[in-house]
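Annotators were shown the component list below and the corresponding predicted structure, then asked to write short factual statements about the assembly.
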Amino acid sequence: DIQMTQSPSSLSASVGDRVTITCQASQDISNFLNWYQQKPGKAPKILISDASNLETGVPSRFSGSGSGTDFTFTISSLQPEDIATYYCQQSDNLPLTFGGGTKVEI
Amino acid sequence: QVQLQQWGAGLLKPSETLSLNCGVYGGSLSGFYWTWIRQPPGKGLEWIGEINHLGGTNYNPSLKSRVTISVDTSKNQFSLRLSSVTAADTAVYYCARGRITYFWGQGTLVTVSS
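Structure shown to annotators:
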């Protein structure tokens, strides 16, 4: 299985701050890396696919980059509605695997 | 707009079999993999497995001996069975579409307790 190591596991930031989350794969996954946002009691929502493809309707303050084994997810200006847990997921190999999550708080 | 609606028993005793169903509305089963993912309370996401409309399956090796995913194209739904459950199987179970999951069910909390 491909292990996804996500950091930090939690962070606290202020409204307007730039927030960065990293995700490292245990082997090369090219750009088959996706980012999800999950709010309490809700199913995850896809934000970014294929490392950097912003999904339709997702605010442009969210972005992703990276390839191979190292990936970054950024919120350029944190908003109150961004409070959530964020997960990376590799879709290169089965079984699909997720990072441990990053809980973003204000 | 595709919608997934899931249902099934939420309280099980150890050694029983978990059974969940997921109905797909507003779209066909064809052309996609249909997925089950679970999330223990307060923890992260675990991929259980997937099925396509032809019945082809892939399972997480960690659960493979206990998991069966099936599809009923006449009802446009797919199902999950997990046998010999223990407390470690307590989780919110989600059905979803695809390996990059754009559409999710509402989630079902399954609690295993004696």
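Statements collected:
1. DSSP finds no helices and eleven strands in chain B.
2. The radius of gyration of chain B is 13 Å.
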